[in-house]
Amino acid sequence: MSNEFKIGEKVKCKKFGALNHDFIGNIEKIYENSALVSIQEHEKEDEVAVNDFHKRVIVRLTNMKKIS
Q1: Residue 66 CB: number of other CB atoms within 10 A?
Q2: HSE of 45 in the Cβ direction (CA atoms, 13 Å)?
Q3: What is the pTM of this model?
Q4: Cβ-based burial of 8 (10 A; exposed 0-12, middle 13-18, buried ≥19)
Q5: 45 vs 33: CA distance, rounded Å
Q6: Burial, 23: exposed, middle or buried (Cβ in 10 Å; 0-12, 13-18, 19+)?
Q7: Would you give per-residue pLDDT tens digits along the chain (68 residues)?
């Protein structure tokens, strides 16, 4: 599954944990079933959680889609 994604690609990720809304980010590193994503665009309501995560999260590959 990791073949579908490449480092630097822009992706839309599903909300999870402390994040109440989906968000957009760039892939920084790819693991076997997940990727490290730097959060680029998010809802204002999630600002505190995004800052707590230092604008980087690990997301399952199945919970993200490429943005063209």
Answers
A1: 12
A2: 7
A3: 0.90
A4: exposed
A5: 28
A6: buried
A7: 556 899 999 999 999 999 999 999 999 999 999 999 999 999 999 999 999 999 999 999 999 999 97
